[in-house]
Design a protein that fits this description.
With 537 residues, the protein is α/β, with parallel strands linked by helices. The chain folds into 4 domains: 169 residues, 3-Layer(aba) Sandwich (Rossmann fold), CATH 3.40.50.300; 78 residues, Helicase, Ruva Protein, domain 3 (Orthogonal Bundle); 220 residues, Peptidase M41 (Methane Monooxygenase Hydroxylase, Chain G, domain 1), CATH 1.20.58; 43 residues, no CATH class. The chain contains 22 helices and 8 strands. The termini are far apart. The structure holds adenosine-5'-triphosphate and zinc ion. The site of adenosine-5'-triphosphate has 20 residues, from helix 3, helix 8 and helix 10.
């Protein structure tokens, strides 16, 4: 039987699953109080991080039956079989309750779109998924069955799967850090009862195996034993482990994005940059979440490192304009750190940050109306053609090049100034950046008290104001930009053009001209060309 003692290096995941174990041990205690039992838990982590092992350990700890299957089997079955397999699975679990259903590779049925299983009709996959959802929704409140699903791609899952009462909990199964790897090595060495040479320090082996998952480490121990055995040794020595590490690294590097020595240094500074800037922003704005964890271990989704900031406690529906700028600045903190530490020799590591920042900046300007130059105009609606009086939508179909250019210009300015602010923060904190960066490079993961000790030292520069223009000589605080200006009239023109109205083009044209002159502005030539007064009304 497998228990939590067999799973090492994933303490947080174990802690989160403890509650599930507790429930399965004494379901009646909760059910008689009318508490809604937990239903589905998604285990997310790279292949080989121990998701299956953890699920088995939950069953072992709770001493309940473990009913497992792989979702990829469902879709490979004959038409109609997937759904019926799911039905059987749940029927069996209910009969044996309290029990655990484990569905490996759940993305195989729950992926929004997938090339790999295209041979199976989409209907088949959908039927299977629907059956799964139906079964989960159909649990009565006193059935003690927990469904654990495993995936290495939570980002591709159908959102329907994550609704309350379905897989509404997510447990991240992280790639182990150095301490975690040492613990995993210990588990496997003692499980095999491997006699170790006196020269072996598992801590050293752990230090050599950045990026190895639990499965890689289990293999490593086995490989070292094989090497020793081949030479007829009675104990496994350090040299056997070192050779085994060398062999596995070659294989593992092909599989996962493992950072090389110098890359580790860069990614560590990058993440430290996010943390430093994020902390400065949180110090300036009230109620902002604090950075809790930094890591440079490979993760599912391909990120090279990450900075974890928990969501704020209160439910938030609105993001205020200063918070949005704060987020932009924090997102660009990684790039800023690289620029400062490596004197402008930046890397491609900020790809995802830049994507997210651009998306956020675009929305701010073109959808949320937070940019005073563009004004409260939704470009998305404009391009959709707008809404007529009866609520129907009208195809737009005219060239909006001009407005698009303006929006792009504003987005670029917003991002550039966010980067300038991030650079300013990073430059003000060289000690934390380098100290925390080096520490992270060495430890691979920094969190808790240790991290907060570093972040306490972060200073936010006094002159940290967000400017519309990045250039020193044209600093304009955002508040001073007049609301009515040329661009908002431009937007009006487009709006007027897109409306289906009983007004003729001629009178529309006149209206626009009137509006423009009211603001002492001249309508741009390229816009005037859209207004053809000859069209019959
Ligand atoms: N955290 C761990 N502690 C100890 N051993 C581990 C750990 N993770 C993995 N292993 C070893 O690797 C083996 C394979 O791991 P497991 O199948 O649980 O990984 P997985 O995350 O489910 O992978 P996959 O996504 O490929 O199914 C385990 O049986 C165990 O021997
Ligand atoms: Zn980043």
């Amino acid at each position: 039987m497998i228990t939590f003692a067999d799973v090492a290096g994933v303490d947080e995941a174990k802690e989160e699953l403890e509650e599930i174990v507790e429930f399965l041990r004494n379901p009646d205690r909760y059910i008689r109080l009318g508490a809604r039992p937990p239903r589905g838990v998604l285990l997310v982590g790279l292949p080989g991080t121990g998701k299956t092992l953890l699920a088995k350990a939950v069953a072992g700890e709770a001493e309940v039956p473990f009913i497992s299957c792989s979702a990829s089997e469902f879709v490979e079955l004959y038409v109609g079989m997937g759904a019926s397999r799911v039905r059987d699975l749940f029927a069996r679990a209910k009969k044996e309750a309290p029990s655990i259903i484990f569905i490996d590779e759940i993305d195989a049925v729950a992926k929004s779109r997938d090339g790999k299983f295209r041979i199976v009709s989409n209907d088949e996959r959908e039927q299977t998924l629907n059956q799964l959802l139906t079964e989960m929704d159909g649990f009565d409140s006193n059935s003690a069955v927990i469904v654990l699903g495993a995936t290495n791609r939570s980002d591709v899952l159908d959102p329907a799967l994550r609704r309350p009462g379905r897989f509404d909990r997510v447990v991240m199964v992280e790639t182990p850090d150095r301490t975690g790897r040492e613990a995993i090595l210990k588990v496997h060495v003692s499980k095999k009862e491997l006699p170790l040479g006196e020269d072996i320090d598992l801590g050293n082996i752990a230090a050599m195996t950045t990026g190895f998952t639990g499965a890689d480490l289990a293999n490593l121990v086995n490989e070292a034993a094989l090497l020793a055995g081949r030479q007829n040794k009675v104990i496994v020595e350090k040299i056997d482990f070192i050779q085994a590490v060398e062999r596995s690294i070659a294989g593992i590097e092909k599989k996962t994005a493992k950072l090389k020595g110098s890359e580790k240094a860069v990614v560590a500074r990058h993440e430290a940059g996010h943390a430093v800037v994020g902390t400065a922003v949180a110090n300036l704005l009230l109620g902002q979440p604090r950075v809790e964890k930094l890591s440079i271990l490979p993760r599912s989704g391909g990120a090279l490192g990450f900075t974890y900031t928990p969501p704020t406690n209160e439910d938030r529906y609105l993001l205020f304009v200063d918070e949005l700028r704060g987020r932009l600045v924090t997102l660009l903190g990684g790039r800023a750190a690289e620029e400062v530490v490596y004197s402008g020799r930046v890397s491609t590591g900020a790809l995802d940050d830049i994507r997210r920042a651009t998306d956020m900046a675009y929305k701010a300007v073109a959808e949320y109306g937070l940019n005073q130059t563009i004004g409260p105009v939704s470009l998305a609606t404009l391009s959709g053609g707008g809404i007529d009086e009866s609520g129907g939508s009208i195809p737009w179909g005219r060239d909006q090049g001009h407005l698009v250019d303006l929006v792009q210009g504003e987005v670029k300015t917003l991002l550039q100034s966010a980067l300038d602010v991030a650079l300013c923060v990073v430059r003000a904190n060289p000690t934390v950046l380098e100290g925390l960066g080096a520490h992270l490079e060495e430890k691979e993961k920094v969190e808790g008290e240790e991290l907060q000790e570093w972040l306490k030292l972060v200073v936010a520069p006094a002159e940290l104001t967000f400017f519309v223009k990045g250039k020193q000589e044209s600093i304009i605080p955002l508040q001073t930009v007049p609301v009515f200006n040329e661009l908002s009239v431009v937007a009006q023109v487009y709006y007027q053009l897109g409306r289906r109205s009983t007004l003729s083009q001629t009178s529309r044209c006149q209206r626009i001209q009137k509006q423009a002159s009211a603001h002492r502005l001249v309508v741009d030539k390229s816009l005037s060309s859209h207004i053809k007064p000859d069209e019959p009304s």
